Amino acid sequence: MKILLVTETFPPDINGVAMTLSRLADELSARGHDLLVLRPGKPEAHSGTGKSWKETMVWGLRIPGYPEARIGLTSRWSLIRLLRRWKPDLAHIATEGPLGWMALRACEHERCPVISSFHTNFHEYTRHYKVSFLERLVEHYLCSFHNRTQANLAPDQGLIERLEKAGFRNNCYFGRGVDTVLFSPEKRDPALRGEWGVGEGDSVILHVSRVAAEKNIPFVLGTYRQFRAQYPGLKMVVVGDGPERRRLRKQYPEVIFTGMKMGEELARHYASADFFFFASETETFGNVITESLASGLVVLAYDYAAGRQFIRTGVNGFTVPLGDARDFQACAANLLSKRGGEYLAEVRAAARRTALQIPWSTTVDRYEAIVRSVLDLEPKPVCDTLDMAPAD
User: Fold this and answer.
1) CA dihedral angle for residue 86, residue 115, residue 63, residue 136, rounded to 10 degrees
2) Is 42 strand, coil or helix?
């Protein structure tokens, strides 16, 4: 099939959406699909696990407060000409910005089948940027955008339920995979732990995300600070960059802020920690959860999105009710009291086994089935089916 992927974030951007779409492009190309990625920025040399995909670039405008990403700007007629020239079987619009909006209008004009995917709770972000009065307006825009497509791919069944209550239609479970070759306990690096000043028998709490208001990082850092006196050798490492990094680094000088890491270097940081504490309340999925499970960490997160899908509390990780700060800190205290024991070693091993059950190949199988259904190549719709990997 010929698939046009329209997105305003893609490598070299470093975020969960870019990573997901890049991996999807890898897998689709490896399976012989003809893929054209339309995005803002400069052309990059990309080769997936199979053949390379094509790229078409548009002019990009950097987003204030988020300089590592751009919005794409082009005209509807430019995109109509692209559709007429390349003649895709289907367009997949992954972001709802100006580029996505123009692509949607162009596809409607040319009667090109369109699917979309829901990656970011932008309407919930308004609460963290002091513009909560815009929440309903943003949600209405997102709903109207996705409802103009023939299928809206979402990574989590709980998210689908919330979207449906808000009026989103044609929602399909897409899911996510995790690279268990890249993210592995075998990447644990004693030299890196030495750089962090970790002594024998000491533990490291890791947090990986964009360092931004919506990630609830101050709560995690405050939780760590609460236990420092009790566990003097305990270290906290934050991997990522963003608008809040400078302020938090000044406010929490005892915390190690590494900046952005990727690839093998990111995998070493995961595997060299012991715990992964993640208190974000705005995730659509949370790739960092599955990457942490794959790395064999003891994960503590809220009970929704990837946490709910894949973690069985006390078996392969730990979750607490969404937004329950008191339970989060109580669970953290309990886990730290058991550090170094056989019980948490069993949890770490179970976390790794769970990640091995979440291959990207299964996710892309599901994607292909959705596309075939939209194009009437599948005998029956697939959007009502749910095929999530079981937690260990």
Assistant:
1) 150
2) coil
Helix (H) or strand (E) holding 334: helix 325-337
Q: Measured between alpha carbons, how far is 170 from 374 in angstroms, rounded to an integer?
A: 11
3-state secondary structure of 90: strand
**What is the 8-class DSSP label of residue 143?**
H
3-state SS, residue 325: helix
Rounded to whole angstroms, the Cα distance separating 59 from 324 reads 43
Residues 6+ apart with CB under 8 A from 195: none
Confidence at 122, pLDDT banded by 50, 70, 90: low
Residue 79, by phi and psi: left (phi above 0), alpha (psi -120 to 50) or beta? alpha
H helix intervals, 42-195: 76-86, 98-110, 122-125, 135-146, 157-165, 190-195
Whole-number average pLDDT of the chain:
89
Tokens of 226: 């609460």
CA distances in angstroms from 288 to 94, 200, 269, listed in the order given? 20, 26, 12
- Please report, for residues 8, 123, 219, 320, 322, the alpha-carbon distance to residue 242 in angstroms, rounded to integers and kept in the order given: 18, 19, 17, 27, 24
Catalogue the E-assigned strands of the chain: 2-6, 34-40, 54-63, 66-73, 90-93, 114-117, 152-154, 171-173, 204-208, 235-239, 256-259, 275-278, 298-302, 318-320
Other CB atoms within 10 Å distance of the CB of residue 131 = 12
pLDDT tens string 35-57: 999 999 865 545 444 447 888 98
Give per-residue pLDDT as tens, 298-311.
999 999 999 999 99
For residue 201, what pLDDT band results from cuts at 50, 70 and 90? confident
Provide the 3-class DSSP secondary structure of residue 282. Answer: coil
Confidence of residue 374 (pLDDT cuts 50, 70, 90): very high
pTM above 0.85, yes or no: yes
